Amino acid sequence: MKSILDYETVALADERDAIVIIDQTLLPGQTKLIDLKTGEEIWNAIYLLQVRGAPAIGVCAGFGIYILMKHSKASSEEEFLSELKKNKDYLNSSRPTAVNLSWALERMEHKVISFIEEEKRAGRSFDKEAVIKVMHDESEAIKAEDIDVCRRIGENGLTLLKKGDGILTHCNAGQLATCKYGTATAPIYLGHERGYDFHVYCDETRPLLQGARLTAYELHSAGIDTTLICDNMSASIMKAGKIQAIFVGCDRVAANGDAANKIGTSVVATVAKHYGIPFYVCAPTSTIDMNTFTGDDIVIEQRKPEEVTDMWYKERMAPEGVKVYNPAFDVTDNSLISGIVTEYGVLRAPYDKAIKEMFEQNK
Ligand code: MRU
Q: Rounded CA gap, 141 and 28, in Å?
């Protein structure tokens, strides 16, 4: 039988002008692939978390802008670029925190502009078909790079672990949040292939249960020793000595190393510091935003109250009219982070210096 790991999180079905995603809101009960064809379908899929996780959102946005521009009726370079910008701004408005969304859209636009400039220098005029082909190749490159980057994060993260370690993770920074391996789960998958016999604990991750529905599902499907816990249980298993390392993903790392990830991550980091357990943030460089100076500058998405009051239960779970606070993410202070695991290696504090040097060395 096909496992959830045999499906692609995001794929381009170019022949029918569609992006194919697994509708993650239905997992683990139902594995349903859906086609996204219009701007509204792509926007809604990102907003509704049918496709989610920073890198997967970026890949989906890259394919999305390509699919939308493939239908462009523009008859000049100016018209094409203005339509591209409109579509880019629209897709970018679907979710504010994961920087991979704007990163992928900017990358696609930049590629188009530099291609048009090169063509001009070579004396060629604007050729829409050629630009569309460049967009296709760039969107597939973003996806291929995501797989390579996650594998390298896995190799670098694995150097921080020992056989038999207990690992805690929060939310889903797994294969379902990327195109393969995940970020926080990549060291776990690679270690599993190499006989590390990890014991993984997944925070269920309220309110939308990405830890229970997605991370526990994919790790368990891979045959990894997986235990699901409620979010309020992590301190007790840390105190009991069951956790040797914590690995989480992130949605945006600021230039000073503060890291935004799913709400509740900073609670785990704070408790880990108390118990002296290393807390690692796994971040592809596409998630590090040098234009965001500190965590205070990261826009935190606020989501609708019903996610807290009404979902996952047949009746409303909270009194009518009660006030609800529902931020999707929080920021973990860089002082609580033991290392940031990137595709280029493990960065250590002081992060402002380490991040700057990493970008300079890998231009
Ligand atoms: O709201 P979500 O499900 O998109 O939140 C996802 C997370 O917080 C992930 O940990 C993060 O995007 C990193 S994914 C590699």
A: 29
